[in-house]
């Protein structure tokens, strides 16, 4: 199935960024009209942390970048360039500063959620970052470059289906992260209940040096030749979150394995 390629200018009724009120951070208020900044735009999600506020007079100076429900927001400068998300309508009324660009879709042509998902895809992020790195100003994307950025445009029903599938996948990932966080808390609480705080040692456990209770051996410092079929040689990338992952481990020959074994015994005996 072949879908047409269109530019953002073809499917957006507004593409534009705002400004920072005169006085910078010192001009922000404790409450009022929200000013969305790059720190609020994360990949696929809007964050309220660090949300700034301006008064009605300051907001009037930024009326041309008044946010609306279903606006897609993309960072166009700095280290977070190309990060993109849908606006959280809970922050309305709101404006954006110069580091954030509004992409307001013509919804009879493109579904906002689909547009956001397309722009956060691996291929789009690669293209956007390449644009940001190749311009006169590094880590910046101009309005004209966004105007010309091309996306695939399936029928509206297909756009909604794609966005729905990806939204469901994100929800599952969020639940998994929450479950893992709760499990980590449970494991920590169980450890403290069984052994107490290892820093204060309230249970009065005997303290010994690691070398007194373990056969401590260093790994090889040699650089053996990797082979297509052999024995796995584990490196730091194979150890993560308390688990040994053999996937992608380099393989070495039986001869190199023998040499490393001899070397490790020598290290152990001479420490």
Short description:
With 271 residues, the chain is α+β, with helices and mostly antiparallel strands.
Helices and strands in order, then pairings?
Blueprint: E1 5-7, H1 8-11, E2 12-17, E3 33-36, E4 41-42, E5 45-46, E6 52-54, H2 56-60, E7 72-75, E8 84-86, E9 94-96, E10 100-105, H3 112-119, H4 122-134, H5 143-148, E11 150-152, H6 156-195, H7 210-213, E12 226-233, E13 239-240, E14 243-244, E15 250-252, H8 254-270
Parallel strand pairs: 3-9
Antiparallel strand pairs: 1-11, 2-10, 3-6, 4-5, 7-8, 7-10, 12-15, 13-14
Description:
There is one protein chain. The chain is an alpha+beta fold and 271 residues long. It folds into three domains: 5-154, Adenine-n6-DNA-methyltransferase TaqI, Chain A, domain 2; 155-203; 210-270, no CATH class. Helices cover 36% and strands 20% of the residues. A hairpin with an 8-residue loop joins strand 7 and strand 8 (84-86). The longest helix is centred in the middle third of the chain and has 40 residues, at 156-195. Residues 266-271 have low confidence and may be disordered.
The percent range for strand residues is 15-25%
Query: How many alpha or pi helices?
Result: 8
In N-to-C order, the SSE pattern is EHEEEEEHEEEEHHHEHHEEEEH
The strand order across the widest sheet is 2-10-7-8
Mean pLDDT: 88
Radius of gyration: 27 Å
The first-level CATH class name of the largest domain: Alpha Beta
- Low-confidence segments, given as residue ranges, are 266-271
Under CATH, the topology of the largest domain is which?
Adenine-n6-DNA-methyltransferase TaqI, Chain A, domain 2
User: What structural class should be given to the helix and strand makeup?
Assistant: alpha+beta
Distance between the termini: 66 Å
Overall spatial form: extended
Task: Give the biggest beta sheet.
Answer: 4 strands, antiparallel
Strand runs, count: 15
- CATH architecture term of the largest domain: Alpha-Beta Complex
| Estimated helix fraction | 25-40%
Overall structural domain count? 3
Query: What's the CATH superfamily of the largest domain, by name?
Result: DNA methylase specificity domains
């Amino acid at each position: 199935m072949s879908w047409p390629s269109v530019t953002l200018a073809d499917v957006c009724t507004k593409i534009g960024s705002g400004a920072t009120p005169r006085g910078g951070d010192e001009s922000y208020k404790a409450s009022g009209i929200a000013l969305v900044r790059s720190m609020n735009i994360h990949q696929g999600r809007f964050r309220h942390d660090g949300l700034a506020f301006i008064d009605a007079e300051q907001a009037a100076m930024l009326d041309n970048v008044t946010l609306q429900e279903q606006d897609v927001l993309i960072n166009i400068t700095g280290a977070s360039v190309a990060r993109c998300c849908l606006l959280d309508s809970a922050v309305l009324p709101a404006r954006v500063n110069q580091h954030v660009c509004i992409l307001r879709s013509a919804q009879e042509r493109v579904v906002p959620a689909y547009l956001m998902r397309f722009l956060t895809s691996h291929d789009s992020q690669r293209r956007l970052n390449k644009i940001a790195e190749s311009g006169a100003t590094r880590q910046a994307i101009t309005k004209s470059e966004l105007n010309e950025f091309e996306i695939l445009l399936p029928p509206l029903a297909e756009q909604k289906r794609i966005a729905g599938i990806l939204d469901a996948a994100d929800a599952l990932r969020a639940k998994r992260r929450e479950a893992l966080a709760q499990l980590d808390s449970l494991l920590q609480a169980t450890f403290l209940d069984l052994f107490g705080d290892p820093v204060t040692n309230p249970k009065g456990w005997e303290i010994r040096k690691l070398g007194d209770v373990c056969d401590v051996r260093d790994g090889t410092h040699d650089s053996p030749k990797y082979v297509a079929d052999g024995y796995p040689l584990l490196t730091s990338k194979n150890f993560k979150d308390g688990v040994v992952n053999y996937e992608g481990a380099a393989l070495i020959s039986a001869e190199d394995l023998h040499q490393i074994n001899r070397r490790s015994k020598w290290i152990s005996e001479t420490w």
